[in-house]
Design goal:
73% helix; Arp2/3 complex 21 kDa subunit ARPC3; mainly alpha; single chain
Amino acid sequence: MLVALFVGVMIISNITGTKGVLLFPSIDFTLGPIQMHGLVTDGAFYLFPLAYILGDVISEVYGFKAMRRVVVAGFAVLLLASLCFWITLGLPKAPFYDNQQSFKDVAGVVPQFLAAGLAGYVVGELLNSLVMVKMKARAGERKLWARLLGSTVVGEFFDTLVFCSIAATALGISTWQDFLNYTLIGFVWKCLVEIAVMPITYRVCGWLKKQEPTYQEALAERAE
């Protein structure tokens, strides 16, 4: 179920994320190199953080190797989805079908955007999981909040930086101010969502640890 949710979120985010979004246009100020004329983000801003929450849960309960397999599976499914979109767009349209351009605008595979999504996804998720597992190796079962926060800051930062650096021009971002706005808003937003849902993440991790036989066996082995 966790893997299905994770991969589903990634597929949906890669489609909804192709839309540029301007939130709170009334916000207008300048602070050094940062110029805010509304909050520039993309259509996946409300969903994508869930991928990191799921990644935290999988890493905490099942470990880095399991999360690495999930990342590989997600990568393969995203490539498959992109290939299917590309093939479908190339098929001859029926005479009665008038939405070819609309379908292309939404589902068209933009190589630059695909590369950005895949690169950010792989870098961010692997770093997120690695930090989570390394911190747990030192602290054990204690300080889950620190692992959740620390892994999110590292993973989200590099994910957002890599993705925005590659995809910015494909989204129509052409100025340094908009790029900085887009990158910072994306990073801060994802971290805030992680903090907001941390109590739920705690409960999910605790419930899975009790229900998962392999985790209980691992605890028993460490106790011995």
